[in-house]
Design goal:
single chain; 3-stranded mixed β-sheet; 8-stranded antiparallel β-sheet; 25% strand; 4 helices; Jelly Rolls; alpha+beta; 2 domains
């Protein structure tokens, strides 16, 4: 019961003391009002009135991706003639025609890749059995996908015989670049300018072939040339 109800009951029962009780009631009400004025309001603020905490993305400036410009860039690149021919220690051939390491098909499964000299230990890399291969019990290529968030990063090592090394890069001459990676000859396929999701690839001759041993090539395929070079350098350094 509130103080105001108690005061009303007292006034009804004790009529003779009506004035006194009324005075007491007024006094009590006054005290109550004064107490409420002095004490802070601790009533929780309704959820609808609470100001939400700003999220990190609410003020971030969105990245402007010009997909139309990217499509125009890819169309312009496709309209250019593809380079075919020798570049240093490499020869660029038609897609999916490079011989690399001669082996009669079908290729066998990769068993115990850790025992092969082609094996590499790279953080986040998982061997791709489809992209790897063995020939008559000898592993001649190891391919691995790298979990780096892009979904398109692959690295590998493989045997090859004969020079120049055949590579099936499908690009115009302006996007092919001879370079040196880890003090070894390399050929890079540069990304299409202004392309949003185009990839880069670099292939390095890690070891030249001899009459007794096949050559070794190391490569990386990812979203930037710098990253591809760094991945190849890590694989080569780990194998030394």
């Amino acid at each position: 019961m509130t103080k105001r109800v108690v005061v009303g009951m007292l006034l009804a029962v004790v009529g003779g003391l009506a004035m006194l009780v009324a005075g007491m009631a007024l006094f009590l009400v006054g005290c109550d009002v004064e107490k409420e004025a002095e004490e802070p309001d601790v009533t929780p603020t309704p959820a609808a009135e609470a100001s939400p905490t700003p999220q990190a993305t609410s003020t971030a400036t969105p990245v402007n991706l010009d997909w139309e410009k990217a499509e125009r860039a890819m169309e312009a690149d496709r309209a250019k003639p593809r380079f075919r021919g020798e570049l240093g220690d490499f020869v660029v051939v038609e897609p999916n025609t490079g011989s690399g390491y001669p082996c009669p098909e079908p290729y066998g499964p990769v068993v115990n890749p850790e025992q092969s000299e082609l094996y590499f230990d790279l953080l986040g890399a998982m061997i791709d059995e489809v992209g790897s291969g063995s020939c008559q019990g000898v592993i001649f290529s190891i391919t691995a996908g790298v979990a780096d968030g892009t979904g398109g990063t692959f690295v590998g090592r493989g045997y090859f015989v004969g020079l120049p090394l055949e590579e099936s890069f499908d690009a115009p001459a302006e996007r092919l670049k001879l370079m040196t990676v880890a003090d070894k000859p390399a050929l890079a396929m540069l990304p299409i300018p202004d392309c949003i999701a185009c990839l880069s690839e670099v292939v390095v001759i890690e070891r030249f072939p001899t009459e007794a041993t096949p050559g070794v090539t190391t490569w990386a395929h990812t979203d930037s040339l710098d990253k591809a070079i760094a991945l190849v350098e890590q694989i080569i350094a780990a194998g030394q």
